Fold:
Amino acid sequence: AAAVGEDERNKLLEQWERVSFRIFGLFGRDSRAKVGDYVRIGYRIMTNDIELRTYNQMMGELHNLGREFPIETAVNDGLMGKDFYDSPDACRYLLWNYEEHLAQASGSGATFDELERIAIWKERASDSIEHVFPQTPGFGWEGKMHMAGQPEEPVLNHVGRIGNLILLPTVLNSEAKARPFVEKKALYERHRLRMISEITAKEDWGLEQIVEREMTIASWAKHRWQDI
Structure:
């Protein structure tokens, strides 16, 4: 295989991941997308193709691989306002990356809770994701699914948005899922994930909070999966 340094190899793998998540996670393409291009790049690298031997040549090919799938469009069209719970594997992957980002942002040497990580990843993806605003809301959730000065909107239009989703190591039963926000916060606080702390810091939870958090996550995602 072409010779590159360890740092260069890690950057190439990181670019590969960024392009792949844009294509399959955010744009939602199935496994047939770009398969020929992936195979050709891999083959050319492993056979020491003269035109694909240097770090810059390989990185250029990976940039070309994702050229049709720019990060701005991927986030704006594939994440913002979308029911991201419909893609539970991509949703869990994105949210765990967000958790790692929050850990890193909290200071040098900060880490995430390993037991929480294990508990999240041993579940089915859909079972590890919690809707803060319930899919079937009970008492205490009335009149919260609207923006200021706007009429109430259908719950199902918004509960699957990334701003309303968190990772939770323990699956809440159906009764707990529908509890008022203050009671759900008490259940969330049993866990040590940083994204949960973002939720429990809020006094209330409705469409305004969902949109605000979605914008925060989208802004981070545009940086996280942009080309190197």
